[in-house]
Protein backbone atom coordinates (compact mmCIF):
# COMPACT_ATOMS: atom_id res chain seq x y z
CA UNK A 1 0.00 0.00 0.00
CA UNK A 2 3.05 2.24 -0.03
CA UNK A 3 2.85 2.89 3.72
CA UNK A 4 5.59 2.69 6.33
CA UNK A 5 5.60 2.69 10.13
CA UNK A 6 8.18 4.69 12.06
CA UNK A 7 9.98 2.33 14.49
CA UNK A 8 10.39 5.15 17.03
CA UNK A 9 6.95 6.83 17.35
CA UNK A 10 4.96 4.27 15.27
CA UNK A 11 3.44 6.90 13.00
CA UNK A 12 2.18 5.46 9.71
CA UNK A 13 3.29 7.63 6.80
CA UNK A 14 3.22 7.49 3.01
CA UNK A 15 6.59 6.27 1.75
CA UNK A 16 7.95 8.53 -0.97
CA UNK A 17 11.37 6.86 -1.07
CA UNK A 18 13.13 3.74 0.22
CA UNK A 19 14.47 5.70 3.19
CA UNK A 20 12.82 8.84 4.50
CA UNK A 21 12.36 10.94 7.63
CA UNK A 22 9.42 10.66 9.99
CA UNK A 23 7.43 13.93 10.01
CA UNK A 24 6.69 13.59 13.73
CA UNK A 25 9.91 12.46 15.44
CA UNK A 26 12.27 13.20 12.49
CA UNK A 27 13.90 9.76 12.62
CA UNK A 28 15.10 8.24 9.35
CA UNK A 29 13.66 4.81 8.58
CA UNK A 30 12.82 2.49 5.71
CA UNK A 31 9.99 0.07 5.01
CA UNK A 32 12.33 -2.90 5.34
CA UNK A 33 15.54 -3.29 7.33
CA UNK A 34 18.34 -2.72 4.84
CA UNK A 35 20.73 -5.71 4.43
CA UNK A 36 18.91 -7.50 7.22
CA UNK A 37 20.31 -11.00 6.60
CA UNK A 38 23.88 -9.73 6.13
CA UNK A 39 23.81 -7.81 9.40
CA UNK A 40 22.12 -10.66 11.27
CA UNK A 41 24.64 -13.18 9.95
CA UNK A 42 27.59 -10.94 10.89
CA UNK A 43 26.34 -10.36 14.45
CA UNK A 44 25.54 -14.06 14.90
CA UNK A 45 29.01 -15.14 13.75
CA UNK A 46 30.55 -12.55 16.10
CA UNK A 47 28.48 -13.95 18.97
CA UNK A 48 29.56 -17.49 18.10
CA UNK A 49 33.21 -16.42 18.12
CA UNK A 50 32.82 -14.71 21.52
CA UNK A 51 31.20 -17.85 22.94
CA UNK A 52 34.52 -19.75 22.72
CA UNK A 53 36.72 -17.50 24.92
CA UNK A 54 33.74 -16.88 27.22
CA UNK A 55 33.87 -20.56 28.17
CA UNK A 56 37.66 -20.97 28.08
CA UNK A 57 38.66 -17.96 30.20
CA UNK A 58 37.68 -17.70 33.87
CA UNK A 59 34.49 -15.83 34.70
CA UNK A 60 35.53 -14.90 38.23
CA UNK A 61 38.48 -15.11 40.60
CA UNK A 62 37.81 -16.17 44.20
CA UNK A 63 40.36 -15.03 46.80
CA UNK A 64 40.69 -17.02 50.04
CA UNK A 65 43.25 -15.66 52.52
CA UNK A 66 44.92 -13.85 49.66
CA UNK A 67 45.21 -16.94 47.46
CA UNK A 68 43.48 -16.52 44.04
CA UNK A 69 41.47 -19.31 42.48
CA UNK A 70 40.15 -18.74 38.95
CA UNK A 71 36.89 -20.39 37.89
CA UNK A 72 35.45 -20.88 34.42
CA UNK A 73 31.74 -21.38 33.79
CA UNK A 74 32.01 -25.17 33.89
CA UNK A 75 34.17 -25.11 37.01
CA UNK A 76 31.70 -22.77 38.69
CA UNK A 77 28.82 -25.11 37.88
CA UNK A 78 30.83 -28.08 39.20
CA UNK A 79 31.57 -26.17 42.41
CA UNK A 80 27.89 -25.39 43.01
CA UNK A 81 27.03 -29.06 42.44
CA UNK A 82 29.79 -30.12 44.84
CA UNK A 83 28.35 -27.91 47.58
CA UNK A 84 24.85 -29.23 46.91
CA UNK A 85 23.56 -25.95 45.47
CA UNK A 86 21.74 -27.66 42.61
CA UNK A 87 19.19 -24.89 41.87
CA UNK A 88 21.98 -22.32 41.43
CA UNK A 89 23.97 -24.76 39.27
CA UNK A 90 20.92 -25.36 37.06
CA UNK A 91 20.27 -21.63 36.69
CA UNK A 92 23.90 -20.95 35.76
CA UNK A 93 23.94 -23.86 33.29
CA UNK A 94 20.75 -22.68 31.58
CA UNK A 95 21.84 -19.02 31.48
CA UNK A 96 25.41 -19.77 30.38
CA UNK A 97 24.94 -22.62 27.90
CA UNK A 98 21.34 -23.41 27.01
CA UNK A 99 20.11 -19.86 26.41
CA UNK A 100 23.10 -18.57 24.36
CA UNK A 101 23.33 -21.71 22.22
CA UNK A 102 19.56 -21.83 21.72
CA UNK A 103 19.54 -18.22 20.60
CA UNK A 104 22.45 -18.64 18.17
CA UNK A 105 20.95 -21.83 16.70
CA UNK A 106 17.55 -20.15 16.49
CA UNK A 107 19.04 -17.22 14.56
CA UNK A 108 20.71 -19.55 12.07
CA UNK A 109 17.41 -21.41 11.61
CA UNK A 110 15.54 -18.15 11.00
CA UNK A 111 18.11 -16.99 8.46
CA UNK A 112 17.93 -20.35 6.68
CA UNK A 113 14.14 -20.23 6.45
CA UNK A 114 14.22 -16.61 5.31
CA UNK A 115 16.23 -17.60 2.25
CA UNK A 116 14.06 -20.50 1.12
CA UNK A 117 10.61 -21.97 1.60
CA UNK A 118 10.24 -23.97 4.80
CA UNK A 119 8.11 -26.86 5.97
CA UNK A 120 7.40 -24.83 9.10
CA UNK A 121 4.32 -22.64 8.99
CA UNK A 122 4.64 -18.87 9.17
CA UNK A 123 3.12 -18.95 12.64
CA UNK A 124 5.74 -21.43 13.88
CA UNK A 125 8.55 -19.36 12.40
CA UNK A 126 7.10 -16.23 14.01
CA UNK A 127 6.94 -18.00 17.38
CA UNK A 128 10.58 -19.04 17.00
CA UNK A 129 11.54 -15.42 16.30
CA UNK A 130 9.68 -14.19 19.40
CA UNK A 131 11.40 -16.86 21.52
CA UNK A 132 14.82 -15.80 20.24
CA UNK A 133 13.99 -12.17 20.94
CA UNK A 134 12.67 -13.02 24.42
CA UNK A 135 15.79 -14.99 25.40
CA UNK A 136 18.11 -12.03 24.80
CA UNK A 137 18.04 -10.24 28.17
CA UNK A 138 17.99 -13.52 30.14
CA UNK A 139 21.44 -14.38 28.78
CA UNK A 140 22.84 -11.68 31.07
CA UNK A 141 21.76 -13.63 34.16
CA UNK A 142 25.21 -15.18 34.54
CA UNK A 143 26.83 -11.72 34.46
CA UNK A 144 24.41 -10.50 37.12
CA UNK A 145 25.27 -13.49 39.35
CA UNK A 146 28.99 -12.71 39.19
CA UNK A 147 28.34 -9.01 39.85
CA UNK A 148 26.14 -9.75 42.87
CA UNK A 149 28.62 -12.27 44.29
CA UNK A 150 31.47 -9.78 43.85
CA UNK A 151 29.46 -7.15 45.74
CA UNK A 152 28.27 -9.44 48.55
CA UNK A 153 31.32 -11.68 49.14
CA UNK A 154 33.85 -9.04 50.01
CA UNK A 155 35.54 -9.73 53.35
CA UNK A 156 38.86 -8.09 52.57
CA UNK A 157 41.83 -10.41 53.04
CA UNK A 158 39.68 -13.38 54.17
CA UNK A 159 37.63 -13.82 51.00
CA UNK A 160 36.57 -11.79 48.01
CA UNK A 161 35.36 -12.29 44.44
CA UNK A 162 36.17 -10.26 41.37
CA UNK A 163 35.17 -10.61 37.73
CA UNK A 164 37.71 -12.07 35.30
CA UNK A 165 38.26 -11.57 31.56
CA UNK A 166 35.80 -14.32 30.60
CA UNK A 167 32.87 -12.19 31.69
CA UNK A 168 33.86 -9.55 29.12
CA UNK A 169 33.62 -12.04 26.25
CA UNK A 170 30.39 -13.42 27.65
CA UNK A 171 28.85 -9.96 27.87
CA UNK A 172 29.92 -9.18 24.30
CA UNK A 173 28.39 -12.45 23.13
CA UNK A 174 25.05 -11.54 24.73
CA UNK A 175 25.11 -8.05 23.21
CA UNK A 176 25.93 -9.45 19.76
CA UNK A 177 23.03 -11.91 19.89
CA UNK A 178 20.67 -9.10 20.89
CA UNK A 179 21.92 -6.99 17.97
CA UNK A 180 21.51 -9.98 15.64
CA UNK A 181 17.89 -10.47 16.71
CA UNK A 182 17.24 -6.75 16.31
CA UNK A 183 18.79 -6.72 12.82
CA UNK A 184 16.64 -9.60 11.59
CA UNK A 185 13.59 -8.55 9.57
CA UNK A 186 10.84 -11.04 10.45
CA UNK A 187 8.89 -10.08 7.34
CA UNK A 188 11.44 -12.01 5.29
CA UNK A 189 9.83 -15.18 6.63
CA UNK A 190 6.53 -14.17 5.02
CA UNK A 191 8.33 -13.37 1.76
CA UNK A 192 9.86 -16.86 1.62
CA UNK A 193 6.51 -18.46 2.43
CA UNK A 194 4.72 -16.46 -0.27
CA UNK A 195 7.21 -17.66 -2.86
CA UNK A 196 6.64 -21.34 -2.04
CA UNK A 197 3.39 -21.85 -4.01
CA UNK A 198 4.87 -20.06 -7.02
CA UNK A 199 7.87 -22.39 -6.95
CA UNK A 200 5.64 -25.46 -6.73
CA UNK A 201 3.45 -24.26 -9.61
CA UNK A 202 6.43 -23.51 -11.82
CA UNK A 203 7.90 -26.94 -11.06
CA UNK A 204 4.63 -28.68 -11.96
CA UNK A 205 4.46 -26.73 -15.21
CA UNK A 206 7.98 -27.83 -16.10
CA UNK A 207 7.08 -31.44 -15.36
CA UNK A 208 4.00 -31.23 -17.56
CA UNK A 209 6.02 -29.66 -20.38
CA UNK A 210 8.60 -32.41 -20.08
CA UNK A 211 5.97 -35.16 -20.21
CA UNK A 212 4.51 -33.66 -23.39
Automatic annotation (TrEMBL):
The keyword Cell membrane applies. One of its GO terms (cellular component) is plasma membrane. The chain crosses the membrane at residues 41-65, 85-110, 131-157, 163-181. InterPro entries: PqiA-like, PqiA-PqiB_transport. Keywords: Cell inner membrane, Cell membrane, Membrane, Transmembrane, Transmembrane helix. The keyword Transmembrane applies. It comes from the Bacteria. It is found in: Cell inner membrane. This is Paraquat-inducible membrane protein A. It comes from Thalassotalea euphylliae.
Amino acid sequence: MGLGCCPCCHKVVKMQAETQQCPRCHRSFSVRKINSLSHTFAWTIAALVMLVPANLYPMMIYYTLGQPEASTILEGIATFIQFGMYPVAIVIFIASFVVPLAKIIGLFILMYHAKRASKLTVKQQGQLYHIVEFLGPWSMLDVFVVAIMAAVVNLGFLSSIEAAKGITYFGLMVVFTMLAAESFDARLLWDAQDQKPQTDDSQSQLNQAGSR
